[in-house]
Amino acid sequence: MRIALVTRRFDPAGGGTERDLTITARLLVRAGHRITIHAAEIRATSDEWALRQVVAPRLGRALGLLWFARAAGAAARREGADLVLSFARIVDADILRSGGGAHSSYVRAARQWQTGPARFAMRLSPYHRVQMIVERAGFRSSRLRRAVAVSDLVRRDLMQTFALAPGKTITLYNGVELDRFTPTHDAAERASIRRDLGITDSRPAVMFVGNGFARKGLRFLIEAWPTVGSGARLIVVGTDQAAASYQRLVRRLGLDDRVSFLGRRTDVHRLMRGADAFALPSFFEPFGNVAMEAMASGVPVLSSAQSGVAEVVPPPMREFIVNDPANRAVLAARMNALIEGAPELRECARAAAAQFTWERHARELLAIVEAAADGQP
To answer: Which pLDDT score is estimated for 377?
Structure first.
């Protein structure tokens, strides 16, 4: 079958959505399908599949998004696509994959971490309004055969926001690279990694990984850190335009020797092996692949109830799911308990992640594609 994958940006070196697109393309090729990727922006060439740029007139950001949403699917079908699977918001996909839930839900959730001026600007932004218009048209399109959500959290949101039938809306969890994110049992390797993290003693190391610090609850985690015991060190990996303000907060709280900022790293899989625990107390997290990667590395996780990954943590780790990421006292108490119990939870964390292989993801994805192609309700 000829399948068109639609995305706003094709960039194999990009973030989570770009990675998921590439993995999906490879899984479908392996199953014998012919793949063409249609994108508004193409940042790399490919020997694996055909690339087509959907070039928009110079209309500005909001109108450019609207133009692409209407043009991409039509361009794919003119080229002979039997099925259009979109990772971007478009109006006429056969399968729409949602990695973030309804945009209107994101806009509402953003009030929890944005400043007043930022909230006001978002309300007035034509770009955000167009995103909501496009996704409503896409999820209510008569062409839509399946809506794919990265978690039950997202699935419930899509069904509620767009009145989608439960049978038409499917949760498909991402896989995890179990051979890349793996625990170490080599004491020398672990000691070497910890030295790279700036830890030369036995104090616990807690990792936070992600861009967009405000949404992921980093400020409240830092503010809770003075009451996190055992001299635990918080290692922050990732970038943010406001990173300097977080570093100033650390200095104001006198936490310079307990909180480190490593910036963007390409060796997160290695650094994980030196960590004792992982924290991702997000206000809005459709899934949270990095938390699953931490568990695959044998690192137990503190997450939030607003995170899709909370659905798949094993029962012994559910006490470390916080309902309110802004509650510093609860964050500190749960963090202390997690650090204390971490050694007994390492095998449990790895076993939970090991269920989510890319092979399992491939089987479920192909079943979704085949059902949509057959026109099954």
So the answer is: 63
